[in-house]
Amino acid sequence: MINKELGATILAIGFLLSIGIVMSQDAKPLNQEAISPEPKAFDGITFGPQNASVETLWRLVSASDAVNANLTKIETALMDASIALSETGIDGPDAKKVLSRLVLADPSVIDCITIDPPGSVREVEPSSFERIKGENLKVQEHINETINTRLYSGFHLIKAIEGVYAIDSEMPVFDQNGKFIGTVSFLFNSSQFFENTLSPFQPGGNSKIWVSKADDATILYDTDPSQILLNESSLVYQNYPELLEISERMSVERTGYGTYK
């Protein structure tokens, strides 16, 4: 997010993510602007400074819509898998067939697994990750919470047992009598997911779209890979107090405007 390009427009989507465009302004020193428009706000509402063009705002809103649509697609696939597993159970060839269909939900998938109530992995697809069968994942906070609450987890950035940072989502599974029998998960590569989703909306040139978590500004996607996983506590950002102030505002404000140098 911090680089020699100038100008930033930021869009918060829901409570999870912020998407931004960093725009080149070659004639000025580092002076960046942050705007956070509501997706519905195109009807006669002024978003911010004049240099936030309609095209820029269109790219942000379109990017936000695309991310939400693809996340919803994953959620729907998880729900369908949960329903199917209520009939097959979370073990065995039929359960693996359900997971084989689930991995097709998005090309960024790493693996899909079923987990029993004690937290152990029962089945996994693709088979290249068979080595994690039997591993207990209850140490992962969101998995433990899903098992305890028996509610859908949403999306969580984690250090996965597969050895990578990735985004995971857990859906509870109940048998046909309504008994909780475990969870089904979809783990995906966040950089690949956002690259695939956002590339049609990238402005080109020295401008770019980036994505961060709304709560702590952790960079989930940037065209500069060295920025990924940095957050507001990272040393590189400490010389930019105005940027840190904006990231704090983004964690609690759906819309807003700010600048930093």
Structural commentary:
The protein is an alpha+beta fold. It has 2 domains: 8-52 and 192-260, no CATH class; 75-188, Beta-Lactamase. Helices cover 28% and strands 26% of the residues. It has 5 helices and 11 strands; from the N terminus they run E-E-E-H-H-E-E-H-E-E-E-H-E-E-H-E. It has helices at 54-88, 93-102, 141-149, 190-198, 241-250; strands spanning 8-13, 17-22, 32-36, 109-115, 121-125, 155-159, 165-174, 180-188, 208-213, 219-221, 256-260. The strands form 3 sheets. Strands 5-4-8-7-6 form a 5-stranded antiparallel sheet, with helices on both faces. Strands 1-2-9-10 form a 4-stranded antiparallel sheet. A two-stranded antiparallel sheet has the order 3-11. A hairpin with a 3-residue loop joins strand 1 and strand 2. Helix 1 (54-88) packs antiparallel against helix 2.
Provide a quick synopsis of the model:
The protein has helices at 54-88, 93-102, 141-149, 190-198, 241-250; strands at residues 8-13, 17-22, 32-36, 109-115, 121-125, 155-159, 165-174, 180-188, 208-213, 219-221, 256-260.
Q: Give the helix/strand class.
A: alpha+beta
Overall mean pLDDT stands at: 80
Order of helices and strands: EEEHHEEHEEEHEEHE
Unreliable segments of 5+ consecutive residues: 1-15, 24-51
Instruction: Tell me, briefly, the overall form.
Output: elongated
Number of strands: 11
Which range does the strand content fall in?
25-35%
Query: What separation lies between the terminal Cα atoms?
Result: 13 Å
- In DSSP terms (H or I, runs of 4 or more residues), the helix count works out at 5
Fraction in helix: 25-40%
Strand order, main sheet: write it out.
Answer: 5-4-8-7-6
Oligomer: single chain
- Please compute the radius of gyration using only Cα atoms: 20 Å
Largest sheet: 5 strands, antiparallel
Number of domains: 2
